Amino acid sequence: MPSHRPLFSHLLRILACGLLLGLSACSTLGQRDPLHIDLVGLEPLPGEGLEMRFAVKLRIQNPNEGAIDYHGVALQLDINQQPLASGVSNQSGQVPRFGEAVISVPVSISAYSVMRQAWGVSGYKPGQELPYALRGKLAGGLFGTRRFSDSGNLNWPQPVGAPVRP
After folding, report:
1. What strands lie across the sheet with 129-138, from one edge to the other?
2. How confident is the model at residue 87 (pLDDT cuts 50, 70, 90)?
3. How crowded is the C-beta side of 111, counted as CA atoms within 13 Å?
4. What's the pTM?
C-alpha cells in the first residue's frame, strides 16, 4: 500500500509558501497617506426638469510614492448634515506620485434636496457657519480604490451692504 505522506508533505510546503507570498504581498502595500482633496470650481450644466446639475472640479493631491490609477469617480456632498448633491463619472486617469490632478465630476441636485436645504437654513443668521462634508472614491480595482473625505464650515453670506463682523 503506497504512503500518501510524501504527497501530503509536498502539498503542505506549497500551501505554506503560498501563505508566505500572500502575506508579503500584503505588507508591500503598506500604509498610504490619505489624499488631499480641494474643491476648486463649480460650473453649471444643463439639468432636466427640476434638477440642477453642476460639474464639480476637484484638485486631488497624492502625497504617496506611487501613482494612483483610477477608472471611475463617485462623489457625495452634504450641507448642514443633509445630502445635497451626488454624482458619478466613468472617467479614467492617474494622479502622479507626489503630484496632483484636477478632475471634473458631474453632480445632480434634486428639487427635494434644494427644498430640504432651504428649510434647514431658514433660521440661519448672516455670518453663521454651515457644516459641509465631501465624500468620494477613486475606483481602482480590488486593492486600488482610494476613498477620500473633506469637511469644514461654510459661512452663511452677509446681506449686501451689511457691516462685516470682526
Report:
1. 36-45, 52-62, 99-109, 82-95, 68-79, 129-138, 146-155
2. very high
3. 5
4. 0.67
